Input
Amino acid sequence: MPLSSPTSRVLSVLERLQERPGLSARLLASEIGVDKRTVRRYVASLRDMGIPIEPIRGKDGGYRLRQGYRMPPLMFTTAEAVAVTLAVAAMQRGAVEDPEDLGGDPAISTALEKLARVLPRHVASRMTMVRAAVSAPPELESPGPHAPHPALLVPLAEAVVGQRRCRVRHRSHGGAITVREVNPYGLVVLDGGWYLHAWCHLRQARRTFRIDRIDRVDVLVGQFSAPQGLDVVAAVEESLALARPEWAVTMLVQAPLSDVQDHVPRRLGVLEAVGPRETRLRSSTSNLDYFVWRVSDLPFAMTVVTPDELRVAFGRHAERLLAVAHGYASRHG
Output
């Protein structure tokens, strides 16, 4: 497939000559989608940039980089390298069944490896750590407009990958500041937000922290063993489902757990089997009417356990629907 811009075609010539020295102008032209004269112009442009491309004599001729020449390191800062890592990693989250999809493009799966080979070693290692530590749901997720600063993200990624205990200074929803020692299990991008899931030694339980409320990270000497098989994305989704302080919700759904799971996403609520045909739904909300709207399309009988105010919200919702139905009946009676 012809490349879309002159710049990408020039860089493609350089990449091919690095990987396959001796390519002829005819083969380069065929692979890039231009004529031989244009290839010669691209080679001249690369030479003007100081890249020593030498001709090879013979029937078809060809080109190669001068023996022993290596491309100089790209001058990315750590912040720029982390930003590139996040962008490409996010693109990889897309569906891979269709090779035409962005997520299925094999060029994306190798882009970071190629970039890492020409970056300074200390920057490339930080890219690798960030990529290994960050998780997201299977659907395409954007890293969000305000990704964490590398001064926070890089040490957190280092601690996740190396299973190193760390100390974080965290600000709560109400503004209270605490210093906690945690075992960081993973970093998660969810709905544009950034989260750290970890074992908190202060609370003696697993906790999820918003990274934009962390203003300092210190990686400590002590190590830990992460739980086997922990799905950090699921853990964060379930934590967020229960994190809203205004209303804690418990309902009983008259259906097996496996059936209810098909209708209730993890970020809406935590599901627990009560019996073979009954499931407990635990959640939290800052708006009872919105929660009623979210669960009203469940095709199962439901009972509110707590709070009583949720029953009142269901009543309001029912009255609105009845008013719509009565209005329709009066116009068409």
